[in-house]
Amino acid sequence: MAKVEKFIPGGAALATLDDGKKIFFWNALPGEEVLEYIITKNKSHYIEATATKIKYPSAHRVAPKDPCYLSTSPWQIVDYSYELEQKQSLVKEMFREHGIAIDAPPIFTDGKDYHYRNKMEYSLYYDHDTEQIFPAFHARGSHKKIKIEHSSIERPELFAAAKEIVAGLNIGQEDARKYQSLLLRCNASGQVSGGLYENHQPHPHFENLTDTILGHTYSYSPNGFFQINLPVYEMALREIKKHIITDNVLDLYAGVGTIGLSVARDNHLTLVEVDKYAFGELCKNITIMDNARPTESEIAKNPVTTGTTKRVLSGNILAELAKSEDVTNYIAPDQTVILDPPRAGCDVKLLDKLLEVHPAKIIYLSCNPATQARDVKILLQKYHIDTIKTFNFFPHTPHIENLIILSRHE
């Protein structure tokens, strides 16, 4: 038997065995006692496992909607208000581990905790009993596939499209092993794009989708980067926009441009992105802007074609294809800098340059508060935290999106 102590960053629940070894449980909540479990990973210092029999279930435990919940959204067993409380506590704990004392930050949600994902990637599973292919997910901690007949974390249009495509495979008596996965994305109006990835073949080009964010239109590829939960993303963008205090704005790790172009398109804006496909989408989004269309001469000098140009200029907006840490010459004192790095956080070379140049404001949105806290600790040498707010982009999962606003010491 193992008594669960708490959730840890990443979403598992921590317990300690009688021999002192740590065990990280899925399907268990703080305060519960796990009587039986299946080990999915056994290392010298810790175990990962899925709880299968619980003694004294938590008052915060609820019945999951989906049989596949452990694969897609393992916190379906947590009541929603408790989930929000736990995410606040986790952010506070991650900052405490880096020596930064904060209150549990306010957490924001639009209240829609199911059917929010606008992108899903399915595996394919052949059921020998029915001789049919099904959409599938991989079981947590395993390469084993589990067929799914019901899934409620994604938009209903996506699962409906997945079933329709799989039905076509069954009619054609296709071999499920021929395909790597099935990727689908839909926009706010319910239009679905995407399709099957065939093994050993280049990824196909799918029809682009468009969506409106804070009143502005964006184009993006279904298999590229775009936010998964747009209503909550807009909540974060509105907060970011309130803190744009300079005319000069630098958007690093810019992706397809939805942060900078949503909150600072009327400013002198520089966007930097390293991925050439995302940069191509960023350039397209600049050209469709309603108030910053390039002139014909600008287009001639700066053709907007994925992979063929490294810099695009359009009126007050500049976009550059580069690593954010390699173009630190763009950082200026009279500037608001927006950071939205990958989970690994910011490169130390970039952080050093920010401390050296000392721009007026740093806006740091992160999908990994642990690395965000590490980076903020460095920046606190010359900055202080104005605002910290957490956004629940991914309900019923342990993922956390955290926003920090830093102002320089004057």
Describe this structure in words.
- The chain is an alpha/beta fold.
- It folds into three domains: 2-61, Nucleic acid-binding proteins (OB fold (Dihydrolipoamide Acetyltransferase, E2P)), CATH 2.40.50; 107-112 and 210-408, Vaccinia Virus protein VP39 (Rossmann fold), CATH 3.40.50; 119-207, no CATH class.
- The protein is 23% helix and 31% strand.
- The protein has nine helices and 21 strands.
- The strands form four sheets. Strands 6-20-21-19-18-14-15-17-16 form a nine-stranded mixed sheet, with helices on both faces. It has a five-stranded mixed beta barrel with strand order 1-2-3-5-4. A five-stranded antiparallel sheet has the order 9-8-7-10-11.
- A hairpin with a 5-residue loop joins β2 and β3.
- The termini are far apart.
- Mean pLDDT is 93; it is low at 290-307.
Strand content: 25-35%
What does the average pLDDT come to?
93
The fourth-level CATH homologous superfamily of the largest domain is Vaccinia Virus protein VP39
The CATH architecture assignment of the largest domain turns out to be 3-Layer(aba) Sandwich
Cα-atom Rg, whole angstroms? Answer: 23 Å
CATH topology of the largest domain: Rossmann fold
- The ordered string of helix (H) and strand (E) elements is EEEEEHHEEEEHEEEEHEHEHHEEEHEHEE
In one word, what is the shape? globular
| Main beta-sheet annotation | 9 strands, mixed
Counted beta strands:
21
Please list the strands of the largest sheet in the order they lie side by side: 6-20-21-19-18-14-15-17-16
